[in-house]
Amino acid sequence: MPHINKIELRGFKSFGNAKVTVPLSRGLTAIVGPNGMGKSNIIDALCFVLGWMSAKTMRAERFSDLLFNGGNGGRPASFAEVSLYFDNSDGGLQINSKEVIITRQLHRDGTCTYRINHRRATREEIIDLLAPKMTCPGGYNFVLQGEVNRFFNMDPVERRRIIDDLAGVAEYDEKKQKSLNELQKVEANLKNVEAVLAEISGQMENLRGQMETAIYFKQLKREHEQIQGALLLIKKKKCSGAIEQLDAKISKLTGEIEELKKRHQKTLEEKDKLNAKIDGISKSIDEKRASEVLVEAERARTEINTLNDILKRTSERKLALDQEIELLAEKIKKISDSRTTDGETLESMVFKFNDARNKFLELYRSLVKCESLSSAKNILKQISEVLNEISGIMEKISDGVDPQKIKQIDSARADERKLREEMAGLQRTRNELARQMKELSMKIQEVKVKLKAADYQEKEIRNSIESLASERNALRQKLESITKRERELETRIRNMEGDLQRLQIQRDALNNELKEINTNLKKVGEVNLPKNVDAEALEKRAQQIEAELGTLSERVNFRAVQDFRESQRRYNEEKMKHDKLIAEKQSLLSFMAEIDEKKKQVFMKTFDEISKQFTQIFKQLSPKGDAMLKLENEESPFEGGLEIIARPEGSGAAYIGSLSGGQKALTALAFIFALQRYRPSTFYVLDEIDAHLDPKNRTKVAEMLRQFSRDSQIVVVTLHDSIMSVADRLFGVTKENGISRIYSVELSGVGS
Ligand code: ATP
Ligand code: MG
């Protein structure tokens, strides 16, 4: 067990500038002396060298107050230095040296330096070196003057922390803190990931509707395409059927046209043959018509006609002359009659007679030539009249003439002569005409005779012509009918060709339509044509879809699906992170729960032990009393503090505040000793812990200190004999000129 052999002080508080050595015993060292001599300053020096950091705990306002202030006119220290000399012969301190000197130096500027065996060291090095075996700053093994009740004045939680320290829960706290730090990080990450997830969820929620619309839009489009495809297939079927029908029609019609064309060709050939025949007949007819007989006969007929015309005109002229003559004859007759009446001469009568006779002759000739009965009858009538006239004239001649009237008759005769001359002239002309007529008639007769002579031949020719003409007519009729047929055929062929062309156009149009349908079908891709498909229903559905697509297209976001998937991908990524973090958090939480559990177990074990020791020690100090330690929260000890419950001898009250100063000191010492028992420290400093104890209790406490000093080095400041009597070493502190001095006290006289 390492222990302090001595303390060396220089410039520290009341100990002056010279080096002062405070020898310490291995067991119990008691420091004695009157008030104000500097006993507690030695305790402060111990605290100082062990690295305490608060000037106040060393009862100084500032660190510089720890420097010797000169006392009664002395020189104030420029620095203070305290050294502890450890006996490390058993190697208890983890340093390879039998003696270990720990030094702390304080300078006036407030700066401190530490040394281990004169080597500069850090405060941490010193604490690390001493803490496992001895003490650490503020440790419960230091009970400063007046602080014996510190455990009562403590906050219960602070009190519980003493158990925490002893149980070493700090290790768990550290682990837990680490886990907590990690947990905080995880939670911070989790929070970030959750924020990201919330943001992505929001985006996804936003996009979901848009995506559904886009998907629905695409479905509608696909359905529309399928319907279009189905309609195209229906159309294709219809179109193919129509093309087949048309092809059949075209083929049939082409055959029919071919047939008709053959027939037409035949008709044309027939026609040509007929035309050739007709031409041949026409040629024969023309040849026959051009034969001399017919030409002559025709010429004769023309001549006859011409002669007849002349004859007719001559006859008319003659007739006119006859009428003129008649008028003249009447005039003459009148004159003659008047002469006859008044004595018409025989001569005149003779004249009259001659005229009548000439007339008769002429009529007779006409009668002879007459060819028809009616004209003969007419002529005979005229002849009868002429004969009557002649008969009248003959009567008159027989009656004779009136002489009275001869004069008148003469005059009349002169007129009559004149008229007669005139009439004679006319008659000559008429006669000439009659002669001409006769000539003409003769001529006509001659020609007629000639004509008659050629009559048989002409008739033959004419019959032949007629028969040829009739044959030609028959052929012409046949030709006409053939031509009609040919035209009909031509018309039919034309019409049929027109029909054929129309059919071909229709077929071409259908072929084009079919091509277009096939192209469109390729675009649509595979089409599942439902059975019993109703084109009308499909059209209706397509229209519905088009209307719906039209409405949707204004608000559809085609990127929504992609964006949604991207968001989903990001969401899944983040979700994986999130789940990982949750798992991490869970594992940290369970690890922490485990730590808490272990911590509680360790704590409870420590607590139970200390509590047991406390009760036992208290019982030793106060056999008729009893005390216990109680956790405020037994279930969760770390959520509550530690209560000290004590019923010292002769005290009924358990309330700690109601205990006397001595009772409190006794209970506190029992608590300190319980802690010592549980984890013995190698070094204890107790400054006037016996201040409030009565002699009986001081003796009990002294006895207990004596027992403890077997295992630990104890430095006690006391003013009472009880402890002095059990001390291994005793020295006093006095003052000379304001400077504390150490002097050894012989133990022989103490405690007796
Ligand atoms: P008590 O028995 O009353 O407890 P004590 O022996 O413990 O007395 P200390 O408290 O150790 O006495 O010493 C107090 C004395 O030390 C005071 O008289 C004080 O003037 C003196 N002192 C304190 N600080 C200094 C200092 N920096 N320089 C000189 N003397 C000092
Ligand atoms: Mg004191």
Plain-language structure description:
- There is one protein chain.
- The strands form three sheets. A six-stranded antiparallel beta sheet has the order 2-1-4-5-6-7. It has a six-stranded mixed beta sheet with strand order 8-11-12-3-13-14.
- It has helices at 39-49, 123-130, 150-153, 156-167, 169-289, 292-341, 346-369, 373-399, 406-524, 535-553, 560-621, 661-678, 695-708, 721-726; strands at 3-10, 20-23, 28-32, 79-87, 99-107, 112-116, 119-121, 142-143, 626-631, 642-647, 683-687, 713-717, 729-736, 739-744.
- It has 752 residues and is of the alpha/beta class.
- It is rod-shaped and about 255 Å long.
- Strand 11 (683-687), helix 13 and strand 12 form a beta-alpha-beta unit.
- The two termini are 31 Å apart.
- Among the domains are: 1-141 and 682-752, P-loop containing nucleotide triphosphate hydrolases (Rossmann fold, 3-Layer(aba) Sandwich), CATH 3.40.50.300; 292-355 and 386-489.
- Helices cover 66% and strands 11% of the residues.
- Residues 748-752 have low confidence and may be disordered.
- The protein binds adenosine-5'-triphosphate (ATP) and magnesium ion.
- Adenosine-5'-triphosphate (ATP) is lined by residues 13-14, 33, 35-41, 65, 68-69, 71, 145, 733.
